[in-house]
Design a protein that fits this description.
- This protein is an all-alpha fold.
- It has one domain (2-99).
- It contains six helices and no strands.
- The chain has helices at 2-8, 23-28, 34-52, 59-78, 82-92, 96-99.
- Helix 4 (59-78) runs antiparallel to helix 5 (82-92).
- The two termini are 28 Å apart.
Length: 100
Amino acid sequence: MESHVSQAHVLSPCIDLFSYLTRNNVFWGVEASKIVNHIFLLTKQYIFRQRCIETKCSTEGLLVEIQDTYNIEMHIAKRSKQKQYEEFEEKWGVLERLIS
């Protein structure tokens, strides 16, 4: 169990995700943070998909999911207008050094 707890802190140097982990925030989202909401949604989607294919969830699998989403959004932002790229950088900036 301790290995899961230590792995869960992978993102915490940049964002204190654990401070957002309340029932209401996970269910309804966090108004102040697009990236936290996106991570919550990706996590829910990942858990649902893994359950559907009857496979165990892993921190590594979730991090791959987050990185894939980052890469897709980065590719779209680079091909878009400057404003969209700035919005991408604003949203993902706190995690960029961990997942790029």
